[in-house]
Each structure stands twice: as structure tokens, then as C-alpha cells.
Amino acid sequence: MRKVALVGGLGLGGLALFVALLVVGVYSAAAGIVGGAGKNGGKLAKNAVPAAYEDLVQEWGNLCDELSPALLAAQLNQESGWNPSAQSHAAAQGIAQFIPGTWAVHGIDANGDGVADVWDPEDAIPSAATYNCSLASYVRDVPGDPVENMLAAYNAGPYAVIQYGGVPPYTETQNYVRIIRAAEESFAAPPEDQQRLAPSELAAGAVHFAQDKLGTPYLWGGNGTPEHDGRFDCSGLTKAAYEAVGIELPRVANDQWASGPHPERDELLPGDLVFFANDLTDSRSIHHVGIYVGGGYMIDAPYTGAEIRFDPIDSADYFGATRPTAG
To answer: Could you give the angle at the alpha carbon of 260 between the alpha carbons of 94 and 155, nearest 5°?
Structure first.
């Protein structure tokens, strides 16, 4: 939760009018901005991956044609949230969530310390990359998107992909593939010749939703539902604002970071999500999110005891921004 006071001298009514004018400008801004985030030769976006793992993901993410650093990052984020100690109810272990039988065959001693350790990211991340590429070769003749077939094989096994002639009709596997492909773009650096990111056509609607909630009391875990008396926490507000315009976001702030491309500070437009973190090199340490409205301000649900309000975004814990995208 973010603790920052509204700058004095800016009345709520004046700011609301200011925001309304900025929101109208979201659409006209599109004409002068080059669109699309895209990929760039397998490079990771700045601060998209925890610093401790960035070099590993960058190096091993280029292992085969079906893999990229951004795709590997999105997969690890989905598997464990970058937690090297993660263990699932199905006994999947470590940052890449290998089950013991699969690790016994495909785990490698990538750091050369004499032990292939599923709990050591220096072994597990390279093992995930090599396993992905092995799976890609197993299912290369299967119809459909080879990247999606590879991901489906990681989740459900290559024989299921072969049996069904593509991504199998398992809800878990289909969601796994969809989520990783949707998040992939947010982990990828934009092309070097790209100067701007296209504004969201739905951003004005999201800002309007948040503006209507000004003055609503904060509630930890609040989603704005009747059982929560219409109250929100920070990520509950941003999720609801974009849900109102047809874009589904994850529930928590550090997962919302991966919901679209990342504009620079001087590229921000109304509707962008702005994030704040305890560690400016690690997206998993994000602790707060708001909706940018222009002029250096956001609408946010700050903390218990406060109301949804305007706050400045420039502070020592400002992490970056995301432009949510449909799909």
C-alpha cells in the first residue's frame, strides 16, 4: 500500500476538470504516436525480470527458434512467480515447477557445481529452456502454432499434444498457453526504432470508471462488489476499471505489471497503470498500482483509512508503467 499525501493547492474539483480534458486527449494523441510494442531480437524489457535471474533468462531464452527470453520469462512468471522455493500440490518444484520424474530426466547441472539442483535457479532456468526446446522438437510436426504446442507440451506432456493434434482440450492447459502468450509481450523490449507506444482506445473508459469512484473508502482486498460495499484496494480498483471496458487484468498489482507493454515516464498517457515497488529491479516487489490521469497524477486507492483520490506519481518507489492491452 502506498502512503503519499495529495499535493496541497490542487482542489479535487479542479483536478477532476483537468482530468476530464486529459481523457478527451487520449484518442487524439494516437495520431502522433507510433504504435505496437513488438519484440526485438530476443531482448528483455527493462526491469521485467528480477535482476538475479535476468542474465539467465536472456542467455537461455534464445536456445531454439520456438523460445525467446520474453516467452521464457512469461512462463517462469506463470509457473512460480519467480519463487525458487515454490512447491505445488502436485509436487512440482522450484522456479520452473518440475515434477521429480521430469527433473530426473531433463534437469541439468548448468552452473557446473556437480549437482543438478531443481531448487537452484542457475540449474532450473537453463533446464526449463532445454526442456522447452526438447518438447518443441517432439511436437514439431504437430499442426498449429509451434510455440503454443511447445507450451502445451510443457504443461500437459508432448503425447497429449500429439494425440490431439495441437493444444489439448484441457482447461488448465489452454489457460496456461493463453496466459503466457498474452504476457509475453510485456517481458519483451520494444524494437529499437520504436519511439512511442500506441494509446489504448479503451483507456478513457477506464479513467472515467476510476474518476467515478473518487471519495470511496479503501478496503484491503476490496473488489467493489456489494459484499465489499463498493469499496476497493489499489489493484481491485484498476482491475474493475479495465474490466468495465472489456479488458481482464490479474487481481494483484505485481501480476498486473505483465498485462501489456511498458511506456517510459515521458510516454505516459491517461489510462496507463503506474506501479510502485520496494525493489526497483524486481517486479515481484511491486506493492501499489494506480491509474495515470496525466500531469504527473494518478487515481488510486492508497491504504486503509484513506479514500480513492488523486496522488502524484513521482516518488522514490516509482517502478514503471504498463499500458493494458486486450487479449
So the answer is: 35
Structure pTM?
0.60
Q: What is the mean pLDDT of each run of 10 residues along the chain (327 residues)?
A: 36 46 41 31 77 94 94 91 88 95 96 97 98 96 96 96 97 89 79 53 86 94 94 97 92 91 89 95 93 91 95 95 83
How many Cβ atoms from other residues are within 10 Å of residue 168's Cβ?
21
- DSSP string computed for 156-214: H-HHHHHHHTSS-S-HHHHHHHHHHHHHHHHHBPPPTT----PPPTTHHHHHHHHHHTT
Closest listed residue to residue 128, CA positions, set 56, 182, 192? 56
- For residue 90, the one-letter residue type is A
Residue 41's Cβ-count burial label (10 Å; 0-12, 13-18, 19+) is: exposed
With both helix axes pointing from N to C terminus, report the angle between 121-138 and 146-156 in degrees, rounded to the nearest 10: 120
Q: What are phi and psi of 42, to 5 degrees?
A: 75, 25
What's the angle, vertex CA 255, arms to CA 237 and CA 320, rounded to 5?
80
Query: Residue 233: what residue type?
Result: D
User: At a CB cut-off of 8 Å and minimum separation 6, what does 197 contact?
Assistant: 33, 35, 36, 37, 190, 261, 263, 267, 323
* Residue that is written with C-alpha cell 526504432 in the block: 193
Rounded to whole angstroms, the Cα distance separating 212 from 285 reads: 29
Pair 109, 127: CB distance under 8 Å? no
CA–CA distance, 233 with 308 (Å, rounded to integer):
9
- How far is Cα 86 from Cα 255, in angstroms, rounded to an integer? 17
